[in-house]
Amino acid sequence: MKHYLGICLVLITLAGIGWFALRSCTASVDHTVDTVRDAFVSVLRVTPQVTVNQRVVLTQTAPIAELAVVTKEELVTIGLTEHFEVMSVQIPLTEKKLTAEAVYRIKAGFNLREPFTVEIDPTTHEVHATMSAAKILSVEQVGDLTYHGDDAVLNRITDAERAEIVNNLNAAAHAEAEKSGLKEDAEKQVEQRLKELIHDNGKPVQVDWLSFPGLK
Q1: CB within 10 Å: which end of the chain, N or C, has fewer?
Q2: What gap in Å lies between CA 111 and CA 64, rounded to an integer?
Q3: What is the β-pairing status of strands 205-210 and 89-90?
Q4: What predicted TM-score, i.e. pTM, was given to this entire model?
């Protein structure tokens, strides 16, 4: 009888240890989930979709549609030069020039409707975040548009050319924004801040940036 009683006590003890270990592991994972959620809300104002063991424990939500992280003002200038030629020889008094310039405010950041997902390893608590790449959110003219035009005696600047150069200036501003490096700056700032906040809680972090061109 005592032998069976001893076995029962051992089994109860092992069950208690197992239950305590499971509770501790669950509590630790819950803490990691809370840390990740708080870091994303603080940095990006978005709650990411969080998965543990292929089970979604948090769904993505965001109170705003976009978040600008980096802003820059840049002067953009373009010019138009035109003259008449006959047999590759320029005709005198036909060369006209038109330049236009304006300051544009460029904002880079994130579309928060695009996916932001996090996978947490339940054993190591390593955090693997898959993030939507930064975008140019807006290119806005600020201040006045400045024209400078030199008519030729035989070739005057037309209203259509003035309208065309304005359109070309806006297109040039968008092109400058795309190659400005602001998107990369926004990603670096966000990744650095997320890693700081999550690392402070002892959790290793990996971040991958992905583009979702089909989403608006």
Answers
A1: N
A2: 9
A3: unpaired
A4: 0.75
| Gap between the Cα atoms of 67 and 192, Å rounded | 17
Q: Is 180 left (phi over 0), alpha (psi -120 to 50) or beta?
A: alpha
SS3 letters across 104-157: EEEEEEEECCCCCEEEECCCCCCEEEEEECCEEEEEEEEEEEEEEEECECCECC
Q: Measuring CA to CA, which residue among 142, 143, 159, 141 is closest to residue 151?
A: 159
